[in-house]
Prior knowledge:
The structure holds two protein chains of two kinds. Chain A has two helices and four strands; from the N terminus they run E-H-E-E-H-E. The longest helix of chain A is centred in the last third of the chain and has 13 residues. Helix content of chain A is 26%, strand content 24%. The mean pLDDT of chain A is 93. The two termini of chain A are 14 Å apart. In chain A, the strands form two sheets. A two-stranded antiparallel sheet of chain A has the order 1-4. In chain A, strands 2-3 form a two-stranded antiparallel ribbon. By secondary structure, chain A is α+β, with helices and mostly antiparallel strands. By secondary structure, chain B is an alpha/beta fold. Helix content of chain B is 43%, strand content 13%. Chain B has 19 helices and nine strands. In chain B, a hairpin with a 5-residue loop joins strand 7 and strand 8. In chain B, helix 3 runs antiparallel to helix 4, helix 3 packs across helix 6 and helix 6 packs across helix 9. The interface between A and B is medium-sized, with 14 and 15 residues.
Amino acid sequence: MSRLHINWIACEAHGMCAELLPERITLDDWxxxxxxxxxxxAELEAHARRAAEACPTFALALEKARxx
Amino acid sequence: xxxSAPPTGLPRLLAGVSGTGALSxxxxxxxxxxxxxxxxxxxxxxxxxxxxLERSGLRGRGGAAFPAATKVSAVAAARGRAIVVxxxxxxxxxxxxxxxxxxxxxxxxxxxxxxxxxxxEATDVLIAVDESATRAVDAIERAVRERPELGxxxxxxxxxxxxxxxxxxxxxxxxSFLGGGPAKPxxxxxxxxxxxxxxxxxxxxNVETLAHMALIGRHGGNWFRTLGAHGxxxxxxxxxxxxxxxxxxxxxxxxxEVASLVQAAGGATGELQAFLLGGYAGTWVPADxxxxxxxxxxxxxxxxxxxxxxxxxxxxSSACAVSEIAFVARWxxxxxxxxxxxxxxxxxxxxxxxxQVRAGAAGEGAxxxxxxxxSLAGGRGACAHPDGAASFIISATHVFAAELADHARxxxxxxxxxxxxxxxxxxxxxxxx
Lengths: 68, 433
C-alpha cells in the first residue's frame, strides 16, 4: 500500500493531480489539493503514480507505506 | 561540596529565583548540586540516562507534549554524530516561560542541554534564542563564559540568535536558519532525529524540557514523578495572562486545576467569559467549563484542549470576543511564512470573513465558510501553523457562537471599539518588508 504525500511549499496549485486522480484528490477554493488520506489500493496505484509524475513542481509524491 | 537533598515540593525549576537577574553558577550549584550524569562519564551512562528519562515520564514542554525519552532514544539510535538544539525561541506571544528560564536560570538550561547531549552522545550543542530577547541572550552568553570547561573535552556549547517571529521558532524553521537558510519552516524529507542540522541526527528540544532533564539527571526519574499527574508527571511552567491580578509565569504540578492557578495569580479581576488554553495555537473553553479543568494532557483532552506551550489566558466578560478573535485571526494570517497555499489563502479568507462578521457585513452562511476554511487549512502545510490557527478559530466559533451570530446580524457592538486585550506583537520581519 502506498500513500500520497504533498510538499506544500513546492505546490503551486496547478491542479493536475485532481484531474488525474479524482478518486483521492479534490481541490479547495484556491485550487490546492485536498487529499483523501486513505492508503492507495493496488487498482489505483498506476493512476496515483501518473498523478505524481505529472505534477509540474514535483510537489506530489507516492510513498510506499513504511513499516517501523 | 555536599550533594543537596532532592527537593520535595515546588518550585523545582524556579528554585532560588527572586529579585532580578540570573542565578550565578555558584548559586546554581548551591541550590541544585553538581550534575553527576555529566561529571562521571561512563560508557553505559548514556543508556542509563535514557532509562531515567523513560522512568520519569517527562513529556516535551514546547507544545506537542511528546515523550522526551522516545525522542532522545530515536536520536541516540540514529547513525552519525548527533547535535543538540535547545529551542528557546518562544514565538508564542502569550508565553514568557522560556525567556524566564533563559534569563533567570541559564545554568539549569545549559545543564539540561548537557544531559541531553550526553544521552545522545552529541559533541555540539546550540542554544537558539530569539535575537530580540536581549536579556536572555546576555544571560546565556554570560553563563557559557562562567563555565570554561565547556568545549574542553566535553560538549561544545554555542549560543545562536534567531530572528523574531511566530513561526521562526518552529523546529524546522530553526534548523533552516541554523543551517544557513531563511528562518522559515521547511519541508523535511527525512525525520529530524535522523537527518536534521547538517544532515546529522538532531535533538531539537524546548528549553523547559531540557531544564527538567537537568534535574532528572541529578535526582532520577522516580523523583521526577513524585509530583504531578500520572500520565504527564512533574512540574510545568505556565504563563498566566489576561484578567488576573498578577499575570506572569508560575510553576505548578501538572494536573493543577485552572481555578487554583488563577488563584495563585491573584484571582480574576472581573467576571470571565472564557479561557484560552495553549495560546494562539490552542483552544478556547467557556469560563464555566475552564475553571474546573486539570492542567494535564488527560485533563484537558476532555475539553478538546491542550496546554500547548503552557499558556492560560483569562478573557474578561468586558471584552468583545468577536472583535478580539477577528483581530487575532488577521494577525495569525500575517504570521504565515507565506510558503504554503492553504495557509496563505485559507488563513487570509478566515480573517477577512471574521472581520466581515464582526462588522455585520458578511453574507448568508459566512460562519460555515469560515469554519470550513479553517479546518481545511489544518494539516496542509510544511509546519503546524495552520493547524494551530485552525484550532484557535474553530474552538472560538463554538465558544462564542452566540456573539458571532449576534454580530453577523446586527454589526459591531458597543465593546468592539475597546482596546484589544489579546496581544498581537508587531512582527519585525513584516515591518522590514
